[in-house]
Amino acid sequence: MPVMSYADAAKLAVAEAMRDDLTVWCVGEDLGRGGVFKQYTGLVEEFGPQRISDAPISEAAIMGAAFGAAMAGTRPIVEMRFADFALCATDELVNQIAKARFMFGGQSRAPMVIRKPMGMWRSSAAQHSQSLESWYTHIPGLVVCCPATPQDNYSMMKAAIACDDPVVYLEHKNIWASEGEVDTNHAVDFGKAALRRSGRHVTLVSWSHTANVCVEAAETLAHQGIEAEVIDLRSLWPWDKAAVFDSVRKTGRLLVAHEAVSVAGFGAEVVATVAQNIPMKALPKRLGSPRGLIAYAPNLEDQMRVTAPMIAKAAQDMMENEPA
Amino acid sequence: MPVMSYADAAKLAVAEAMRDDLTVWCVGEDLGRGGVFKQYTGLVEEFGPQRISDAPISEAAIMGAAFGAAMAGTRPIVEMRFADFALCATDELVNQIAKARFMFGGQSRAPMVIRKPMGMWRSSAAQHSQSLESWYTHIPGLVVCCPATPQDNYSMMKAAIACDDPVVYLEHKNIWASEGEVDTNHAVDFGKAALRRSGRHVTLVSWSHTANVCVEAAETLAHQGIEAEVIDLRSLWPWDKAAVFDSVRKTGRLLVAHEAVSVAGFGAEVVATVAQNIPMKALPKRLGSPRGLIAYAPNLEDQMRVTAPMIAKAAQDMMENEPA
Amino acid sequence: MSLSNFDREAGLARLRMMERIRAFEETARSAAIDEELVLGAIHLSIGQEAVATGVIETLRRDDYILSTHRGHGHTLAKGAQADAMMKELLGREGGCCGGKGGSMHIADFGVRMLGANGVVGANITIAAGAAHGIKLLGGDQIVVCFFGDGASNRGPFLEGVNWAGVFNLPILFVCEDNQYSASTLTSDMTSGNIADRARALGLRTTEADGNDVTTLAATAAEITARIRETGTPEFLMAKTYRISGHTYFDPATYRPEGEAERMQATTCPIARQREALVAAGVPSAELDALAKEAHAEMDRALDAARSAPWPADETAFADVQDIGSPLQEAF
Amino acid sequence: MSLSNFDREAGLARLRMMERIRAFEETARSAAIDEELVLGAIHLSIGQEAVATGVIETLRRDDYILSTHRGHGHTLAKGAQADAMMKELLGREGGCCGGKGGSMHIADFGVRMLGANGVVGANITIAAGAAHGIKLLGGDQIVVCFFGDGASNRGPFLEGVNWAGVFNLPILFVCEDNQYSASTLTSDMTSGNIADRARALGLRTTEADGNDVTTLAATAAEITARIRETGTPEFLMAKTYRISGHTYFDPATYRPEGEAERMQATTCPIARQREALVAAGVPSAELDALAKEAHAEMDRALDAARSAPWPADETAFADVQDIGSPLQEAF
Ligand SMILES: Cc1ncc(C[n+]2csc(CCOP(=O)(O)OP(=O)(O)O)c2C)c(N)n1
Ligand SMILES: Cc1ncc(C[n+]2csc(CCOP(=O)(O)OP(=O)(O)O)c2C)c(N)n1
Ligand SMILES: [Mg+2]
Ligand SMILES: [Mg+2]
User: Fold this and answer.
1) Fold of A194-318
2) Mean pLDDT, chain B, integer
3) C-beta of D69 in contact with ligand 2 (< 6 A)
């Protein structure tokens, strides 16, 4: 199996889909020069500037026009550059794309992949670092993906392009270069979590880059005799409740970790859903960013970060403070 | 004490603040003719068209310009007409207003009230009905208010105008005409819930119009011998954890109800926070809209609605299905 | 309009379409006011019928249009059935959007009417994109995007018109300038002039009397033929006037006393077209019959709508999405 | 520029400011590349120094400016201290934003520089609003809003410029046309022409050579005086060229071979100003000394920044908000 980076894995998926289906095309600023994170490098040479299309600095039009083109029968992949800039196209995504099929009584479809590179990336500061995945899970009509590995970025990109619903596709900026094996025959279904590690003491639920951080924490915990099960949700809508429920039934303990702000983050949805359904041995926990902003200075930025030691510590505490 | 409508109560608060402080002004489309819900009727006659300012259909500029004017020393009240249209100004609110003070190291302030009439209002369909309060609670830098009564719409508007932070102020469209006594000496602090009813069996937590629906449900429950405590959070950020914790410690049962979509709604935050801190007698519950869209036809619209009977039924179930 | 080459048949067809639009809206209005059958807000285009009629008659069935919150006229002119539209306004089964959209989201993809829109100006980028899609797929259709004067103050106006220019797309933007943005005079909130904005954005721009259906149709025919030929976007400013209020329940007291009456008397496109036809020798009885027929059609549409059932409750959960649909995940 | 009325002192002051801007950015770039001291992206305005210099010298200290992601020059020209700015780029205590903003959010409210902005075009509506605030408060300050050519394709350009026109606000919009939007030639993505957009939005619009600081300053002086006098907004198109890449690490291979070198040789505003001063009889040794002094100032700024501590960890939680602050509600 070839080893490739998270960026290249998605690029391979895009290229394969574009070869198979002439109606698939990409649009965004600077794509003809490979895009700002080089996740499109080489594609314009193969597919030409109509299908790897540059765009003016017009996020609202990029999103709105891609939607129009989707209704006219194409399958656009929309590049938003930074998830933060996608906020310039919120009406288009939330009021138009997510609602059109329903409002028009099923007459229209919006098969689109909306790529929004997200998350903290050293010293990018408050306007280039946000993780807003929970917003999109709250919007009916949208599918929401947060791949954490090259394999998933390949397989989920393939699934997203094939999907007839609009898919908000959140790649994490910090792991563009991370490498891993990619099996191009491996398909991932939305709503199926990845079991990144099995364990019987505590269930760690996460997604995106923080899922990788959880795996790291689980290794530390293993040295202390605590076997953590790590569930990487991969897609947040739909999300794999069955996998989480099964795991928590087994371990009796739930810890959810993510990079986004804790308050009204998707971790709240996971903890609340489990708490509503499953009695646990210990009170469940969430780790996310404080409700503060992401600063430029690295030590200040770090105050907003959920780290492997924090995750390991929280899991240990859950093991120790067992109710009698 | 005078009796007045929810709309008029806020208007009185605005007028009083404008009399006291010449830097307070309102800006939005059609304000000179009273605004689309008549919540500004008569103000232009008293304060003139500069301070009750019309605006072009430019939500991004209304929000952005008001922010600039706030940095230059005024205290704008921004009218977004429907909360849905505020999505056209998301970058301005989230990337600019909420972050400026922090990004600039405390050099700037944005004392603004951003009024976003929200919620279902018969047959307004998918683009004029949304409740997106949980989005704003997820954004550091913002205060979030959801008044449910004329008294609170008076007192909280007063507090919001006086506040030096940007306040997202969500009035519910369905209760503009609802009437109640208003004590103009009664102040409300952000983060202090209203105890709308006391009870010892189950804690109902809600806000905005659904808080009123919970009071109705509690009356039904009382006839069945179930004493529900109804907590109206009023402000969602900050929210009154202490009041909720105290109540749940007493009742041992938590039911959160809101109009917004359940998935990643603020109910998840409340349930998760309580579940992380307090062992309960029964599994907690949430009632919110299914993750579906709001239709025009009334019977379809009703499928998305949380009603008093649904709340009462859920509370009853919690009393019956007591774990042994 | 010169009488010499006045085409009687075309003139009658245009009057018929305008009468149908007027009758549809008058019927809907009385259904709303007298019977409270229409539950949500409806925005009437009374006085503006010539724009929809004159422009859309120049399109093929497979051309696309996109509309605004004031979309009944465009939808009828593109060929949608009044029946299904009226059912939609009443929120009934058989409505063109299954009762989910109502007036503000009226759409008929069968005739390539890609929807009214509740967000002012939002259709401009979407329409540019539909034209982009046509170009990518190598089609020979064109797109017409209607919007109001007030919409020209929203960012998507600039972004969408620029997009069409940059990618050289087969689209006609039609600004229906009825002078008002809800209760506000658009000129009070607009710096410069809308047609100049379009020109500055690189588009060939034509200004026309939007209440003279005959010359408007001729102008539109030239423009749409040119767009189909060259694939290059253009812009049409159509000056018109909304005789009714902003919504059906708006008394429009913000207008200067007598303005609406004066405009109705002088610019109503239906009255003008009737005069033209009478001048061309058509007996006025024939014209009256045509109006009566239009009203009868809409009465029948209302009757059908009135007796149609509500949509089945379960449809509330359908057509949200395939993956993670509320049909599977209701709560 | 006619030599006859060339003001030697002003000319030297302008050269000094441009040299300071250039030296600040060259110092920051080598701190980033050679020492990895600058952690985030920085956008250099090398080649564009004349615009900040020529326009801002016409302002009062209490006038406001708003800038873009490429804001070092504007900030220095408005009077901010290089020390505090360099500390900000290094994310240190004493940085003008306490290390929270970095280059892309550089700001100094003390000199009424209301911030750089990481979102292209977002400053345009905010700037219009600052001018709105001045008008409401009855002040006599004016606002200058800088943005790039690429920003003219964003909706807020239309909404903000229209706003200024409608409310007749004391603001000058300055488009620094360096021809590129990151790696894209702006003209490839722009239909029509930017100055025409401003004119169509009702603003008096002047086009100027943005690399000739002398005439630019004269033009700007006329314009800003007029704005202060009339309170009416205007627009200035300043043609310039970014000699460096988009970010300090951008090799800018998307530019035609030799373009940057040719432009540097022919249009560099610092080289042109030096020539003019030499022609006016200033010894070049004096000019060299001035450049050296600028570099020495920035070396000192970098030394101070390098040895400054990180901001205290707790400051990460301060200045978010008063009500519901993370200081009270950390997790
Ligand atoms: C983004 C947005 N802002 C405000 C509104 C409320 N609104 C609905 S129609 C309208 C007036 C639109 O004026 P114009 O574009 O001229 O169209 P007209 O109503 O005159 O046909 C307004 C302000 C809206 N629907 N969307
Ligand atoms: C809304 C938004 N879209 C995209 C970007 C990414 N970006 C940063 S600078 C830039 C180019 C801006 O071009 P221009 O306005 O001409 O300014 P210049 O960089 O040439 O000074 C882009 C696309 C952004 N910061 N904000
Ligand atoms: Mg209008
Ligand atoms: Mg540029």
Assistant:
1) Rossmann fold (3.40.50)
2) 97
3) yes
